[in-house]
Amino acid sequence: MIIPPLPTPFDPQGRFDLQAFRELAQAIEPHVDGLLFYGSNGEGVHLSREERTQGLAAQSPKKPVLVGLMEETLAQATAALAEAEGLGARVLATPPRYYEASLGPDGLLRYFCGLAEAGQSEVWLYHVPANTKAQLPLSVVAELAQHPRITGIKDSSGELSRLAFYASQKLALEVYTGHAPTFLGALALGAKGGILAAANLAPKPYKRLLELWQAGKVGEAQALQAELEPFGRVLAQGGFVLLKQALRYLGLPGGYPRPPYPSESPAWPAFKPLLEAFRERSWTVE
């Protein structure tokens, strides 16, 4: 499956644009296999509880949904879990991070197991150290994988050694990568698909890469990954600011980052020709 972490549109003054949020989801959903709301590229940490609730209520997805939880306490996460259950969504939860040094492995186990036992939704682990600056130790992942309602992990670290560990231990988790530059490597190590920022812009070639790998056409898959690598790498460098700028360039209602973040990325001059090349090949969402 190829799933985009959908951006959350704000207007130039930083107000949550609910109509644009719904329209963006409706524009992208037909091209992908599901949607992630409030992931890292969805600026979930920039939303109030009321805005999160309003945003989910505005959506009517037809494909599978995940909802990101980036909370600091179990009480906060449990409240967000209840909102996600209204959409029948799985939740994708990062570890608490502000007091990480005081948490330790036992605290991580208490947090994720408590979240899994607080509702009926499946819980996926979300390892994105570039943003959270928090670690999710492999030993903790292995223990959490034994919980019946902890069923998946999105690993955005780009560290293929972690995916090799998941495979070698035969963990009972659906493994997805969030790192487009190493997408093929992740597939080779057992990942089922990608939850990729690039899929908001150009899901077609990433779906094709997945199909080639599944069909055993390794050489063709390697060639396509080589073509896609600069696109994924530069987009990762520019983050959500660059993603929203690219969506606006394509005429999609991606909106703007919430202040104080800038509306334009310094990576745009490098990314624009890559995006235009994809557009010429009819690889982009229009």
Automatic annotation (TrEMBL):
Active-site residues, record numbering mapped to chain: Y126 (proton donor/acceptor), K154 (schiff-base intermediate with substrate)
CDD domains (UniProt xref): DHDPS-like
EC number: 4.1.3.3
Xref: SUPFAM superfamilies: Aldolase
Binding site for pyruvate: I195
Biological processes per GO annotation: small molecule metabolic process
Pfam families listed in its UniProt record: DHDPS (PF00701)
Gene Ontology molecular-function annotations: 4-hydroxy-tetrahydrodipicolinate synthase activity; N-acetylneuraminate lyase activity
The entry's keywords: Lyase, Schiff base
InterPro entries the record matches: Aldolase_TIM (IPR013785), DapA-like (IPR002220), Schiff_base-form_aldolases_AS (IPR020625)
Family according to the record: Belongs to the DapA family.
Record protein name field: N-acetylneuraminate lyase
Organism: Meiothermus luteus
Gene giving rise to this polypeptide: nanA
